[in-house]
Design goal:
The structure holds 2 protein chains of 2 kinds. Chain A is mainly α. In chain A, 51% of the residues lie in helices and 2% in strands. By secondary structure, chain B is mainly alpha-helical. The chains are: A mainly alpha, B mainly alpha. At the A-B interface, helix 2 and helix 3 of A face helix 1, helix 2, helix 3, helix 6 and helix 7 of B.
């Protein structure tokens, strides 16, 4: 390194990196090995081509032309999506999930329910209706009338009493 | 054969190989033209990273096989050269990532084999190969971003815009990375020189 480059850091960098870049440039200009082109072309030819042939060919060529166009394929895909979504929506709209709680009917002008929800008594079984006392008495009177007169009570109570 | 029979025959027959023959022929011709035009450039790009002739050849072949797989999109490519370099660049970086670090001695022997003779004696060639291998070892010590820009900038046929396109960065990033790479490289080479 000479004095001029030592005093000027920019020149020093250029001088030092020059040899690195010359090495890289040497590699960047290397001749390709002979036969590279042939090798690649052979590899391309020997690669199995993606089969465009199908088992079932369209019978007529005009139909084939529009069936293979990108626009028609897109339209067909969109139609399939519409059918699937429509069918799903139809099923969903018919089969609605049962409500878990009954909402109170809204009374116009009345107090609001404040979000209260009435739940049905699902565990209540059949309950025994308690007869009223009047009905019981009536039944008792009727029964007494129908009964035959009983024998007189003994004057003396049994000894056990 | 009746009309109905002919229709069914059409449905059941395996389509002839002549389907899209013309289009396929065009694509094959385009591909062969690309190979003839850019195989050497791609080889150089691959060698600059892999530093092994057979590995570089494999990378070039793989790049064209990838092109063959995506031949339908060939018409959409604006600049085939940059597109191909980008493909081979990605392949090469992927291979380099997977491969173990090459010792400097491997580079020396490979460079001695590959470098043009230019009327040098065997000793001079060996010395030159050793010098180049040492420089390349310093290049390897650069951070990856700076190293990539420096390697690609050595290709005279690539402008800074094209380097930016290959690396997927902006042109100003290319310039700033190259500036950093040169400074770092100068430090590395000076350090190596003083430590000897």
């Amino acid at each position: 390194m000479n004095i001029a480059t030592r005093n000027n850091p920019a020149k020093e960098i250029v001088a030092t990196t020059g040899e690195a870049e010359s090495t890289l440039r040497l590699i960047a200009n290397l001749p390709a090995p002979e036969g590279l082109e042939l090798r690649v072309k052979t590899a391309l030819r020997s690669t199995p081509k993606r089969s465009t042939a199908s088992l079932f060919a369209w019978p007529s060529s005009p139909f084939r032309s529009w069936a293979e166009s990108a626009w028609m394929r897109g339209a067909a895909a969109a139609a399939i999506v519409c059918v699937v979504v429509g069918g799903g929506w139809r099923v969903y709209s018919r089969v609605q999930p049962k409500p878990t709680a009954l909402a109170l009917p809204h009374v116009a002008g009345g107090f609001s329910s404040a979000g209260a929800v009435r739940t049905p008594h699902t565990l209540d079984g059949p309950t025994l209706a308690h007869p009223q006392k009047d009905v019981l008495r009536k039944h008792a009177v009727d029964a007494k009338k129908k009964m035959p007169p009983l024998a007189e009570k003994p004057a003396v109570a049994p000894a056990q009493q | 054969m009746s009309a109905g029979q002919s229709v069914f025959t059409g449905w059941m027959e395996i389509a002839p190989r002549a389907v899209h023959d013309e289009a396929r022929q065009d694509v094959e011709e385009t591909l062969e033209a690309l190979v003839a035009q850019y195989a050497t450039t791609l080889y150089r790009v691959a060698f600059s990273i892999l530093r092994n002739a057979s590995d570089a050849e494999d990378a070039v072949q793989e790049a064209f096989l990838r092109v063959l797989r995506h031949r339908d999109s060939l018409d959409e490519v604006r600049d085939h050269r940059v597109w191909l370099i980008r493909i081979v660049w990605n392949i090469v970086l992927d291979r380099k990532r997977r491969a173990k670090t090459r010792p400097e001695t491997d580079d020396i022997s490979e460079l001695a084999r590959v470098l043009p003779t230019n009327g040098l004696s065997a000793e001079q060639r060996a010395a030159a190969a050793q010098h180049h291998a040492h420089v390349l070892a310093c290049v390897d010590r650069l951070p990856s971003k700076e190293r990539e820009v420096m390697v690609l900038s050595a290709f005279e046929e690539l402008s800074s815009v094209e380097i930016a396109s290959v690396l997927g960065i902006t042109e100003s990033s290319v310039r700033s990375r190259l500036f950093r790479a040169r400074n770092l490289m100068a430090d590395l080479l000076n350090h190596a020189r003083t430590s000897r």
